[in-house]
Specification:
Helix 5 links the parallel strand 7 and strand 8. The strands form 2 sheets. The protein has a 7-stranded mixed β-sheet, sandwiched between helices. The protein has a 4-stranded antiparallel β-sheet with strand order 1-2-3-9. By secondary structure, it is α/β, with parallel strands linked by helices. The protein is 25% helix and 29% strand.
């Protein structure tokens, strides 16, 4: 793990941002990239990040990335786990179809979050930055789903926040496609990592409290991606 994470770190850019790339001696292409939003003094420009996410949401307001067949598949997967499933949380949902379909197939309470102020128009959607945690969520959520993890400005902070919300044994399911690779990073999608590298990142961030349970190939993928997988992360402690 240390060998991979201590790879070459490159910084590029002159317009108030940096892209940090981690490469391994085993692979010649970047395995991990993070686009950061910096002010002239080097500090994090949160307002710029937020505005870019809102603009991106507005531009894609009528588009739906998530596929109902995949949510039906995940609902059956979640339903097989021991213990009651009463509450789900979906992050970065835009039009909110994730929570609509999870509610349809699981018949439980599911809400979504969206950073844009368009959230108020979408049923069961809260305007919220998914890097933060509402106190009432802590330890109270049975599963979390997102296909928007690539929109995180700090993926370690983000995943740790989500895992705090889960009950012990709860699941966090990240949708990961070829569109979430390190090479796809840009100002709107600041985080990217190759699928094979994600378990190592999760292992490092989890520090024994959570880890990858399994990688599952999605039953259906969109025409714009080469592959689509679900990374199932389980809270152990």
């Amino acid at each position: 793990m240390k060998i991979i994470l201590s790879g070459i770190k490159k910084t590029v850019g002159k317009l108030g941002y940096e892209i940090h790339r981690t490469e391994s001696a085993l692979w010649k292409t970047p395995l991990y990239s993070l686009y950061t939003y910096l002010r002239a003094d080097g500090s994090f420009d949160y307002e710029r990040y937020k505005q870019k996410q809102i603009e991106g949401n507005n531009h894609k307001a009528d588009k739906v990335w998530v596929i109902e067949e995949n949510i039906a598949f995940l609902s059956r997967y979640i339903d097989r786990f021991e213990g009651p499933t009463r509450r789900g949380l979906c992050h970065g949902t835009r039009k909110g179809m994730e929570q609509v379909w999870f509610k349809k197939y699981l018949n439980i309470d599911v809400i979504g979050t969206e950073i844009s102020d368009t959230a108020y128009r979408i049923p069961d959607t809260l305007q919220w930055d998914f890097h933060e945690v509402k106190p009432e969520w802590i330890g109270a959520i049975d599963f979390i789903y997102s296909n928007s993890f690539d929109h995180s400005y700090d993926p370690e902070k983000c995943l740790n926040a989500w895992m705090r919300c889960l009950r012990k044994g709860g699941l966090c399911i990240l949708e990961h496609s070829s569109g979430h690779e390190a090479s796809a990073v840009n100002e709107l999608d600041p985080f990217g990592a190759d699928l094979v590298f994600m378990p190592y990142l999760v292992l490092n961030w989890g520090k024994g409290e959570y880890g990858v349970r399994e990688l599952i190939e999605a039953p259906k993928k969109g025409k714009n991606v080469r592959y689509l997988f679900f990374i199932v992360i389980q809270k152990w402690m």
